[in-house]
Amino acid sequence: MEIWENPNIIEVNKEPGHFVAMPYDDFDPTTENHNKMLLNGDWLFKYKKGSDVYPDEWHLLEVPSLWQLKGYGKPYYLAFDYPPGLSKKKREIPKIDHKYQEFGLYKRTFTLESEWQNRPVYLHFEGVKSAFQVYINEHYVGYSQGSMTPAEFRVDNYLKEGENIIQVEVYRYCDGTYLEDQDMWFLSGIFRDVYLYREKHIAIRDFFVTTTLDEKYENALLEVEVSLLNEPKEAYSLEVLLKETNDRLYVESTSNQVKLEKWITSPKKWTAETPHLYELLLILRNNEQIMSVKTLKFGFRTIELKDEEILVNGQPILLKGVNRHDFDSSKGWIVSDEIYHKDFTLMKKHNINAIRTSHYPNDTRFYELCNLYGFYVMDEADVETHGVRRKNVPGDHPIWKNAVVDRLERMILRDRNYTCVFMWSLGNEAGYGQNFNHMKAAGLSLDKTRAYHYEGDYDISVSDVLSRMYPTPDLLKRIGRYETIKINPMSNILNQLFADDKPLKPEWYKGKPVIVCEFAHAMENSLGNFDEYMDVFHSYKNMAGGFIWDFVDQALQIKKGDEIQYLYGGDFGEEKSHRYFCANGIVDANRNPHPSMIQVKKGYQNVLIKAGKDHKYLIFNDFRFRNLNEFQIRTKVLKDGIIFAQNEHTIDCLPYGSTELSYPVEIHDEGEYILEITVHLKHDTLWEKAGYEIAFEQFILQKRKPEKPQYAPIEYSLEEDRISIPGFGFIHLKTGDYHHPSFLEPLKMNFWRAKTDNDRGYSNFSKKYGHLILDHTCEKASKNYSVKSYEIQNQNHLSIIITQKVPGFVELTRHYVFTRKGVEVTMTGTPKKALDRFGTTFILQEDMPQLKWYGRGPCENYEDRKTGSKIGIHEMNLENYIHHYMRPQENSNRCDIRWMNISNLSIKDLSREGLSISCYPYTQEALEKAEHIHELKIQKYVTINVDHKQKGVGGDAPGVAMLHEPYQLKGQKTYHFSYLMEMENE
Q1: How far apart are CA 81 and CA 175, in angstroms?
Q2: Residue 495: which pLDDT band, with cuts at 50, 70 and 90?
Q3: Rounded distance, CA 169 to CA 784, Å?
Q4: What are 830-859's pLDDT values in tens digits?
């Protein structure tokens, strides 16, 4: 049996986990550190698969990198399965078919100066997937698995002065791969930094800093536990200096384990809203000679679980979070500082305050920056067995105990000094069993200052919180009311496939905070119903918030010639794949926000505003640590979308408090009046300048009255198959469609849309048979209708009423009324079944026209995802109006449109309800057919969809719309709308 398939061996000669802090030789650690030697760069590399022998020739491979992204082997994207070669038969697990194993052999030389001799030297790998053995100067050093935490080996006995050779053999799969079945790409290689560092024989090996606030949450007990590398032979002194306050902790000892503590008076407190950091210096001396200096940036804060709430420094918090993969579209898990700053800036600008490291520990730079920017981090162990979690992996099986305990311990030991980490997670979608009890017991022995989370906990006996994944808002309300939750037959069936719905008894969870570890599944054009979740979070005391799934699309960026292509699962010739389920982000693979990001910002905003009586507006401060007087409040009154009046205000409102703003508005005419209240930064921050808007609300004070068309008698002629109207085109009497001289394609009825990922529903899970599940009723109704009868009236105006025969409809009529400058279009119909949309479509011969409209915007929005989009006058080019999702699908819709101008065409709502309008430079059929964005060719025309309504996009569950009732277009219901279409040259 090979070492990489033996679950009883998880490491050989590997150092215990510890906090990673580089040693400095003097009191000022800002100088260049000569105790660390980075080994990143070009390594010699050989690749083989199965029983093949390594080729003779070496090639260069960058470290860090992932070899599938460099042309060796192929990536697999699987959300809840394993690549070929890993058996899922319960009696065989863990079993790896050797013919599928892949090997990467790395080699490089480095030069060691004499000063490195006779010192403890460590070889540190921050991340290697999935297992590896290492040799130095042809001496065997050791073995490691557990991909997402460091592997460290003491190597001074293998080193020599001058040139040294390091060789690393990396295995794509190992028995530990069964524990790493996260919803991400299966890739392999040395993907984080590799370096050597040296210590002195008596050195600070590890330390743990904790802060405990007093009962008033004012003063703090600072405790520092320190472990030395070796047992000292003589007394040493250890000084711990808090730089900003000059507070000093000091001890003299001969023990290799010491603890220092001191009360610090009124330190500034760290929270996600106020991320105040201090710098701690740990100085080890022997007879006044500095032996070692290590540093830590940290914050003073206390985490408690009390009365069903998560308290930070005594104040209940609401997690407004996202799940986030450490991922870059061109480099996989190698994430640059630039991307980290971009991610955290985007999150702060959109009111996100918490991150779950789904589903593994991230690079240490992540935590350092979360400390700096201010995020509550749920740090998650590298344990997921989604594809075999019902087969006692890890469950109660003793062969997995050491591995899962080791993964949790190494995460805690590495990360427990990061203030941002507020909770440990035992893993994700890994079933349940005694091994999770062992994990928690091991965790508590290392850190009792934080709570422990595990969503898979069946009876909530291990997890300190009740965690749920993709509950509906109604289910959360039931949990908020402490009801018994039972599992229905459909859930039982889905549980056998990929789901994990569990029953709940109130006595299991009453008294514990509720965290929704995954919700609001953001699979491309999705994230509907977000407001409903936020309403629940704000309504029940035990609701502590949740984490959106997820932050960034995991598309892989491939360059073919001059073209950049974004690929997903199944694009690399894999035997099996879960295809585009890798794209669930609120930002795309290049960190460009999807339109859903605007809804996140609105739902997560920290100032809530509601209308009261007598021109008073109730303002709720949802910041838990900041007074609203730190922000600027602006009010403006819009008349028909144009600013009519505006003011600025400073409001004093304590954290988690409320107040009133009185703002009377006098209205003297028939225009539409809207009051807009916005909240802005008063000062520059790390992530944005003063003046940036962080919250808003709009109130319609007076509704608009639709424009009255100007009618006049219009000449027409009745021909064999059409009604011709000079200057206006004609109406075809076989279809009832309106043909205008400027239209490339006529005005048709339209009841379908290019399917979103959510529209595809369970067909998402099967490429081969998925098409059999899809319902094309709406598409057929849009293409197979005819004229049943028609009536022409032409007294004061030309009126043409057409009764249509439409598959799937009880009845439907179209009514055209020609005005002096255009045509009034009215449509009334009753479908037998639910529709995608109820509207019309046509194609205009225009190349990237300018669009200007009065309605929701500027970003794309839908009926169940529109409150984050302001009602106003917006303007942009068609190129910016559309939105490119990784897999092409319905996009670009705007709701509640009063009017829109597209070049010389104007469209005006006559129904008072507002129109939904989408436009794009290709046909709807081309949009439906394309599987990748590079396949969708931009044309020199624009398809314009003018709808009464389009159904919502959904988002309660992964890849399934689950539309809420208000956002459906139901069958057996009559729909009616009317709009005026005018061309300037008419």
Answers
A1: 15
A2: confident
A3: 62
A4: 999 999 999 999 999 999 999 999 999 999
| Residue of 304, 316, 301 lying closest to 371 (CA atoms) | 301
CB count within 10 Å of CB 252 equals 10
CB distance 564 to 637 below 8 Å: no
CA distance 44 to 141: 19
pLDDT at 668 over 90: no
pLDDT higher at 34 or 349: 349
CA distance 145 to 538: 43
What pLDDT shows up at residue 341? 98
Residue that is written with structure tokens 């700096």 in the block: 372
In 3D space, the residue among 843, 846, 904, 848 whose CA is nearest the CA of residue 876 turns out to be: 848
Helix ranges (H only) for 792-902 are 878-881
What is residue 943's DSSP assignment? E
φ, ψ dihedrals at 252, nearest 5°: -115, 135
Of 28-32, 233-237, 625-629, the one with minimum mean pLDDT is 28-32
- The secondary structure of residue 26, as a DSSP letter, is S
Provide DSSP, 284-334.
EEETTEEEEEEEEEE-B--EEEETTEEEETTEE--EEEEE----BTTTBT-
Count of CB atoms within 10 A of residue 214's CB? 11
The amino acid sitting at 415 is D
| Residue at 239: amino acid letter | E
pLDDT at 29: 58
- Please report which helix (H) or strand (E) contains residue 855, including its range: strand 850-857
Structure tokens at 838: 């109820």
Annotated catalytic residue, options 518, 697, 779, 982: 518
pLDDT, one tens digit per residue, over 198-228 is 999 999 999 999 999 999 999 999 999 999 9
Distance CA 357, CA 322 (A): 9
Alpha helices in 333-395 (DSSP H): 337-349, 364-373
* Marked catalytic residue, from 429, 455, 532, 574: 429
CA angle (801 as vertex; 795, 802 as ends), nearest 5: 155
> What gap in Å lies between CA 172 and CA 746, rounded to an integer?
56
Residue % of the chain over a pLDDT of 70: 98
Kindly state the greatest CA–CA separation across the chain.
111
Q: Which residue do the tokens 């003297």 mark?
A: 668
Q: Mean pLDDT, the chain, as a whole number? A: 95
Helix extents (H) in 575-680: 596-603
- What is the total residue count of the chain? 986
Q: How far is CA 827 from CA 60, 966, 974, in A?
A: 66, 21, 10
Contact (Cβ atoms closer than 8 angstroms) between residue 696 and residue 870: yes
**Residues 740, 747 contacting (CB under 8 angstroms):** yes
**Is the CB of residue 601 less than 8 Å from the CB of residue 353?**
no
pLDDT score recorded for residue 501: 85
**Predicted TM-score (pTM) of this structure:** 0.96
Active site residue 239: no
- Reduce the DSSP state of residue 380 to 3 states and report it: strand
368, two tokens: 């350092």
Say what the pLDDT of residue 31 is.
64
- SS3 assignment, position 816: strand
Would you say 902 and 919 are in contact if contact means Cβ atoms under 8 Å apart?
Answer: yes
Report, as an integer, the average pLDDT of 865-890.
Answer: 97
DSSP one-letter string for 490-503: HHHHHHHHT-----
**Residue 725 three-state SS:** strand
d(CA 686, CA 881): 30
Burial class (CB in 10 A: 0-12, 13-18, 19+), 144: buried
The pair of three-digit structure tokens given for residue 681, joined into one six-digit string: 């930064």
What is the mean pLDDT of the segment spanning 16-21? 97
Does 575 qualify as catalytic in the annotation? no
The whole-number pLDDT of residue 491 equals 76
- Using alpha carbons only, give the angle 103, 401, 467 rounded to the nearest 5 degrees: 100
Residue 925 has pLDDT above 80, yes or no: yes
Token representation of residue 706:
């639709």
